């Protein structure tokens, strides 16, 4: 077999066999297929796509390129969740402990933020002492003892994805549905969960810009998971404004603590998406008879404080100082040099938010990384004061910037203003949940 012939086959819109895909991935890992051939192949896939069978084979080859985590000795259904990435998406910090408080087993491997999106590991590390690089045996012990742990992906997991993603990032080949599906699912499957709830974000703050693209990606990921015997549900949700009001690491931890303390009402978008994800996680864990039953269990765990207690236990087990995780002390994580309100330039309806740009505005304050080497300032970020559809007056702030550097405040404020559209017209109401795909019993 020659790589060049297989690239040519994909350029001609042909279908690669299982053996051909294995040859390409093995070759790429051992260096016999060089970067330029893999980059060319990925570009051909961007244009010509893959069949579901090819995408599944690609996922399997990537998944088996490194360590496979075996969680089978832990009791219960091991359930994971994954978001395709957004802004103000604080759901893991809420849902993972809530589901554990309802008896679920949540063994989760999370990522870091890059570019305009946030990452759960960075949020966790804004709580002093919290470790996210934890050896596998300690990770297992924590999950076994308290039902939940959230750590970084081990360095040995899915090396094919690391190498392919690094190439995609610099060759404009990220935006391919089969490549994204294989990248996400190979990591999730290697991480060992029996059941996976996927939150596919759609909109101007997400990779997928349209509902149709989101549905195609969701269907493919569910199909891949099912083909290898995992139960998978994908929800397709809106990312045309930040999900929570907070965008920044400790700020998002605070919003999670607020939600888990009963300070955020039903109907709030973050509350509702957390309930939806938690409901599906409990259903896949066989811990609820119906969606209504699952929601009731989650709400009970929220109201009794059991969810917040789980988060505190998890942080303690991961070496962090959980005493900050209550309404009385959480502001101790948010000490910044200045808090600066941003007012609208005119009165009117908040018509639209360029969500990616809001993420970038928070990143400019130091809440995110522009390159992998950048350091994060855990306390900085922004808190939205208005959501899309609100009528705003000139003396009412749209958001508050939390900053440690007046120069950064200036550029961030500029970016934030550019993200906002005010109009005399009220925008059409948009639902938060577009679709749910996959196994619901
Ligand atoms: N997230 C991933 O892990 N991989 C992709 O390709 C896109 C988003
Ligand atoms: Ca095709």
Unreliable residue stretches: none
Determine the structural class based on helices, strands and strand pairing.
Answer: alpha/beta
Ligands bound, unique: uracil, calcium ion
Mean pLDDT: 95
Shape: globular
Helix count? 16
The biggest beta sheet reads: 6 strands, mixed
Order of helices and strands: HHHHEHEHHEHHEHEEHHHHEEHEEEHEE
- How many E strands? 13
Query: Share of helix among residues?
Result: 40-55%
Radius of gyration: 22 Å
Strands across the major sheet, in which order? 3-2-1-4-5-13
State the end-to-end CA separation: 44 Å
Beta-strand share of residues: 15-25%
What does this structure look like?
- The structure is a single chain.
- It is built from 16 helices and 13 strands.
- The chain has 441 residues and is an alpha/beta fold.
- It binds uracil (URA) and calcium ion.
- Uracil binds at residues 84-85, 174, 179-180, 183-184, 207.
Task: Describe the secondary structure blueprint for this structure.
Blueprint: H1 3-11, H2 18-30, H3 35-48, H4 52-63, E1 78-83, H5 91-101, E2 105-110, H6 120-125, H7 136-146, E3 148-152, H8 159-170, H9 177-190, E4 195-202, H10 211-227, E5 231-238, E6 246-248, H11 249-260, H12 269-284, H13 291-303, H14 306-317, E7 338-342, E8 348-353, H15 355-367, E9 381-384, E10 391-392, E11 399-403, H16 406-419, E12 420-423, E13 433-438
Helix pairs in contact: 1-3, 2-4, 4-9, 4-10, 5-11, 5-12, 5-14, 9-10, 12-13, 15-16
What would a concise description of this structure say?
The protein is α/β, with parallel strands linked by helices. It has helices spanning 3-11, 18-30, 35-48, 52-63, 91-101, 120-125, 136-146, 159-170, 177-190, 211-227, 249-260, 269-284, 291-303, 306-317, 355-367, 406-419, and strands at residues 78-83, 105-110, 148-152, 195-202, 231-238, 246-248, 338-342, 348-353, 381-384, 391-392, 399-403, 420-423, 433-438.
């Amino acid at each position: 077999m020659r790589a060049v012939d297989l690239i040519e086959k994909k350029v001609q819109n042909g279908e690669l066999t299982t053996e051909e895909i294995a040859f390409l991935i093995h070759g790429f890992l051992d260096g016999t297929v060089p970067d330029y051939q893999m980059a060319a192949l990925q570009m051909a896939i961007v244009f010509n796509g893959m069949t579901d069978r090819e995408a599944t084979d690609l996922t399997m080859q990537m998944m088996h390129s490194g360590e496979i985590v075996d969680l089978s000795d832990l009791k219960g259904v091991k359930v994971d969740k994954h978001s395709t990435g957004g802004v103000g998406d604080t759901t893991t910090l809420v849902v993972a402990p809530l589901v554990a408080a309802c008896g679920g087993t949540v063994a989760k491997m999370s990522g870091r933020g890059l570019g305009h999106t946030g990452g759960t590991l960075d949020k966790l590390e804004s709580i002093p002492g919290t470790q996210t690089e934890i050896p596998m045996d300690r990770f297992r012990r924590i999950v076994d003892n308290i039902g939940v742990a959230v750590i970084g992906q081990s360095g040995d997991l899915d090396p094919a994805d690391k190498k392919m993603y690094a190439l995609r990032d610099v060759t404009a080949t990220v935006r391919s549905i089969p490549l994204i599906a294989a990248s996400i699912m190979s990591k999730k499957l290697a991480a060992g969960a029996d059941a996976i709830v996927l939150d596919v974000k759609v909109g101007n703050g997400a990779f997928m810009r349209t509902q149709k693209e989101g549905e195609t990606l969701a269907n493919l990921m569910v199909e891949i998971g099912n083909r290898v015997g995992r139960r998978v549900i994908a929800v397709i949700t809106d990312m045309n404004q930040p999900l929570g009001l907070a965008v920044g690491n400790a700020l998002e931890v605070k919003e999670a603590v607020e939600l888990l303390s009963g300070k955020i009402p039903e109907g709030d978008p973050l509350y509702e998406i957390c309930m939806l994800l938690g409901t599906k996680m409990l259903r896949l864990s066989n811990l609820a008879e119906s969606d209504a039953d699952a929601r009731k269990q989650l709400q009970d765990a929220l109201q009794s404080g059991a969810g917040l207690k789980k988060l505190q236990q998890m942080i303690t087990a991961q070496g962090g100082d959980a005493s900050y995780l209550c309404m009385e002390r959480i502001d101790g994580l948010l000490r910044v040099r200045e808090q600066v309100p941003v007012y609208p330039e005119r009165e009117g309806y908040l018509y639209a938010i360029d969500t990616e740009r809001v993420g970038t505005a928070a990143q400019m304050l130091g809440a995110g990384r522009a390159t992998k080497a950048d350091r994060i300032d855990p306390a900085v970020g922004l808190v939205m004061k208005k959501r899309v559809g609100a009528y705003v007056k000139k003396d009412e702030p749209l958001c508050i910037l939390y900053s440690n550097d007046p120069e950064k405040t200036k550029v961030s404020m500029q970016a934030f203003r550019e993200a906002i559209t005010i109009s005399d017209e009220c925008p059409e109401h948009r639902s938060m949940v577009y679709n749910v795909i996959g196994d619901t019993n």
